[in-house]
Specification:
This protein is an all-alpha fold. The protein contains 14 helices and 2 strands, in the order H-H-H-H-H-H-H-E-E-H-H-H-H-H-H-H.
């Protein structure tokens, strides 16, 4: 059915008698745009880009956008999975630790003679396994994932330090195809950015159009009702944490391919960036709803803030403050647009 044939939500049902049917009215372009859940963050991102570029025209250079995209992808890939947990009413604070362990683990295997493709595959499996550990602990102890992952974050950080002896892992075979492909560019765009885009599409389908996504949203909307309906909450929680762990591994392998070395400090502080990207993008902490594409946009907002601070020469002492303030502003703008859209729908 074409866009012109779409009618608004007040059109009568098809089986209503002819005299009760409301005439179909095509939606205006504005109504279609205003219906986007991610409209607020899109406006915020565009505003920041224009503002920074107005004072620093070199910000509009292609190289600048490539760097921002790459930086957003490093933690943004993990934010895509965080959408599922937040929509379920859960939070994983250990993502930075899982990310770091996967990089160190894969780098050690490759350095010790493993084929880079096999080493990268093992790195992703390490991420899935660590996510499963979080899920099994949360289900077995019957406690919230935020409590479990608060402890496992330190555990995983410790593993990265133990495995690497606190030293960077170097001496990897950089001439191998894995590093050339996933550490390079395609049509001038980094491979990690392409991967970020593809994962966004795939996970959007998983979240919005599959039974798993439906179960995730159902649990977040009303956990008690979901339990009474027979939804396997523990299993869905376990799968959600394994998904996040796997995405940490994928992001870690792409990071390893780009830098062609590993450092035990990789991922420190990423957990807050990952959660912030998902929330800025429109995923509610209250659960029940979320947007994978919004998480991608949220990651770009944070990366743009960081780049903008560098452009304006803001000292490192102010970086955290300014970043937090802009994040709050983006969330507030998104909430305002949502509220006005809701009020408009009620008046119609």
């Amino acid at each position: 059915m074409s866009d012109e044939m779409l009618t608004d939500e007040h059109a009568a049902l098809p089986d209503a008698p002819p005299e009760a049917r409301a005439p179909a009215r095509p939606r205006s372009l504005w109504r279609r745009v205003a219906g986007l859940n991610e409209l607020g963050v899109i406006v915020a991102l565009a505003t920041m880009v224009v503002f920074i570029g107005a004072f620093h025209p070199d910000f509009f250079a292609a190289e600048s956008f490539v760097n921002i995209s790459r930086q957003a992808a490093f933690f943004g890939i993990m934010a895509l999975g965080m959408v599922f947990l937040l929509a379920m009413g859960e939070i994983d604070l250990s993502v930075g630790g899982i990310y770091g362990v996967t990089i160190i683990g894969a780098a050690i295997l490759i350095r010790d003679g493993w084929n880079p493709w096999l080493g990268a595959g093992a790195g992703v499996l390490i991420g899935v396994a660590l996510g499963a550990v979080n899920g099994l602990l949360a289900n077995g102890l019957k406690i919230s994932t935020i409590v479990v992952t608060l402890g496992s974050l330190s555990m995983f950080r410790g593993l990265a330090l133990v495995f690497s002896d606190g030293q960077p892992i170097v001496g990897l075979p950089r001439d191998q195809a894995f590093f050339r492909i996933f550490g390079g560019d395609l049509l001038g765009v980094p491979a990690i950015v392409w991967s970020f885009a593809v994962l966004t599409v795939l996970l959007t389908v998983l979240f919005r159009y599959t039974r798993f996504g439906f179960l995730v949203r159902s649990i977040g909307s009303n956990e008690q009702a979901a339990r009474l309906s027979g939804i396997p909450i523990a299993r869905v929680r376990l799968l959600g944490l394994m998904l996040v762990g796997g995405l940490c591994g994928i992001s870690g392998m792409l990071t390893l391919a780009f830098f062609q070395s590993a450092d035990p400090s990789n991922g420190i502080g990423y957990e807050l960036l990952v959660i912030a990207a998902a929330i800025i993008g429109g995923t509610s902490l209250a659960g029940g709803s979320g947007t994978v594409f919004g998480a991608l946009l949220g990651a770009f907002v944070i990366a743009t803030i960081t780049s903008g601070l560098v452009q304006f020469g803001v000292t490192a002492n102010w970086t955290s403050f300014v970043t937090g303030a802009v994040i709050i502003g983006a969330v507030a703008l998104d909430a305002l647009i949502r509220r006005r859209r809701s009020d408009g729908a009620q008046r119609t």
